[in-house]
Amino acid sequence: MICSNLSVSFDGHLLFAGQDTVSLANEYGTPLYLMDEARIRERCRTYLDAVNEAFAGNAKVLYASKAASFKRIYEIMREEGMGTDVVSMGEIYTAKRAGFDLSLAYFHSNNKTDEDVAYAMDNGVGHFVVDNVEELYAIDRIAREKGIKQAVLLRLTPGIDPHTYAAISTGKVDSKFGSAIETGQALEITKIALSLENVNLLGFHCHVGSQVFDSDVYIRASSVMLKFISTAKDALGFEAVELDIGGGYGVRYTEDDPVIDIRANIFSVAEHMKKCADELGIKLPCVCFEPGRSIVADAGLTLYSVGTIKDIPGYKTYVSVDGGMTDNIRHALYGAPYTFYAADNMTAEADMECSVVGRCCESGDIVGENVLLPRETTRGTILACLTTGAYHYSMASNYNRVAKPPVVMINEGKSYVAVRRETPEDVASLDL
Ligand code: LLP
Fold it and tell me: Is the residue at 64 inside a domain?
């Protein structure tokens, strides 16, 4: 099994976090997002323990809440002592409702509107990660109007290719995010930030990509960023006190994906950064990590019920499920692969090749290609799609006015609803 929170019961059912997925499907209905609370907490602790030890306490872990954003997640992050990265008024509002201390939040986005900026300041968001010069001036202006000095980091593009899907690669110079070091724009925005009275420049940020397995990607990115910090010190006399190196560690969607030892990786990044800082003659700033996917991805799976099975002789077999691109857009968007199991028939041989498709009126509504399922899969079979804790609920849509599934958490042998199932009335509730 690709993840240690999965096992099989004596009667051939898939167990997730020790719970029978078929019983949970019967209790809560399908489609259903399940999440393993203990796994989420374990991942937070892995990061927190590793950064505290490797950087002797001079480091932070910020949960990138775009991966899965709902009230209960922020409560868990609060309890675990994590910071968070937020990207919209909606995420700020949700974190606030969970009682999350927003002074620990970092506000991202490449195009914050004046309304976003004012909302974040009014709610006490501690740090802004500034993407560009226009935004920097807007933050300074709005902070002045509010009589505050806003702490900021500047998002820079280090010019690193992380070898992931093009749509989630962000560290290259040609990117909509950040100010490029290579073009001189990074030094320029630093100079401007230092000249503004209502911003307090703390340091820099970069995020090179997501679902990254290149073990040296953070090593390469941190070399570039620390070199820039030393350049800014020499050119402008500015010594950064924070360096946020973003998120990105990849997770296992299939057996082909490698396992990343996050703790070991953090230790080698720390070692490298300390050496680099020494060589450059700079003090190592407080280092922030911003993991999203690697905190929640394998703490989640989706359960579907099989409906129609269509065999087109000489072509393909289509297995339709009661969800699809509305709860999992990642296959349609990135061609992302997944692992599927017949959750109620785990001991049968998976010998039928098929495409698992959703029920939207669109041919691209596919969640898995070349999937192997048991031949006896039939209407009513419960299908599990693994590793859906990150970027599934948060990217779910109401296309075709399909209602979103609930998020049910499992903890200490019990299950509870963290987000309830939408109804057709919810979906139409904004129509005037
Ligand atoms: N920090 C920043 C500034 C980010 O933009 C992201 C992700 C993260 C941290 C967290 O990265 P992670 O640890 O989750 O890789 N929808 C795509 C992923 C988009 C990632 C966007 N930014 C997907 O489903 O694969």
Answer: no
